[in-house]
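User: Sorry, what's this?
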Amino acid sequence: MGLPERLRKEWFLLGIVLAIAAAKLQPAVGAKGGPLKPEITITYIAVSAIFFNSGLSLKTEELTSALMHVKLHLFVQIFTLVFFPTAIWLFLQLLSITPINEWLLKGLQTVGCMPPPVSSAVILTKAVGGNEAAAIFNSAFGSFLLGSSSSVPFTSIFSQLFMTVVVPLIIGQIVRRYIKDWLERKKPPFGAISSCVLLMIIYTTFCDTFANPNIDLDKFSLIIVVFIIFSVQLSFMFVTFLFSTRNNSGFTPADTVAIIFCSTHKSLTLGIPMLKIVFAGYEHLSLISVPLLIYHPAQILLGSLLVPTIKSWMISRQKALKLTRQPKAPVKV
C-alpha cells in the first residue's frame, strides 16, 4: 500500500494528530471565549448537527428498538452510576497511602460519579458502526438522570438536552421521511461527517486543556494523574467488553460498542458546574477539577485511537456470528 493510499485510509488518525498539534500551537483560537466561540459552535451547533445527522441516518425502527432494549440500558446506567464510582472509591483507598495530592484523589472520585457525555460516546459509537440509537438514549438519559438529582439547575439541563439532542433528532427523522429514497440511493457518508465533527471537538477540547491555568501541576503529579486516568479508562473498557461479550449475555457486537463508550465516558459539560456547586468556596477547587479536565480529552483521544481496532473486531465478530447461524448443508450419503 502506497503512502497516499495509507494516508487516505488513516485520515482520521492523522486528523487527530494535526488537531492536537494545532491546539498546542495556538490554544487561544479554539478555547472558550476565543474566535471560534466553542461555547456556542461546539456546545450547541456541533452537538445539534451530530443528532440531526443521527436522525437522518437512523431508521425509526432502530430508534424504537433501542428504546425497548431495557437490559442494555440497565447495564450502562448501573455500571456508570454504581459500579464505576464504587470501583474508583476502592482504588483510591489504595492510592491514599501514596504521596499523591489528596485533592487530586478527591477529583478522581468526583470523575467516577459523573454521567456519560451527550456527544462523544455517540460519535465514537457511530464511527465504529455500533448501536448508535442505544448510545443516544443512554448518553442523554444518564445526563438527565444525574442532573435532575444533583444541585445543578434542572431546567437548564433539561432545556439544553432538549434543544441540542431531542429537537435535532426529531427534525432529522422528519426530514428522513421525505428524502428516504434519496438517502438509500446515494448513501451519504454519515460516519465521515460525524468523524469530522469529532475532530472539531478534539481540537477545541485540547485548546481548552492547553489554555487552562488550572492544569499547572508539577510534572510528576501531572504524569501520575494522566497515567491513572488512561489506566482507569482502558481497564473499564476491558471490563465492559468482557461482561457484554459473555455467552448468553444477550448483547450483539453493535451493542457492545455502545456499552463500551457509554459506560466509560464522563461528561465535562455537566461535571464542571457540579464541581463548582459541590465544592463552592474550597481553595483547592482548581486541583479537584484537574482530573475531570484531563479525563475529558483523554477519553476522546483514547476512544478515537481505538476506533479502527474496535471496528475491526465488531465486523469480524458479526461475520463469525452470521456463519454460525447459517443452516448446515445436509450430508450426502
Notes: The mean pLDDT is 83. Residues 138 and 152 are 19 Å apart (CA to CA).
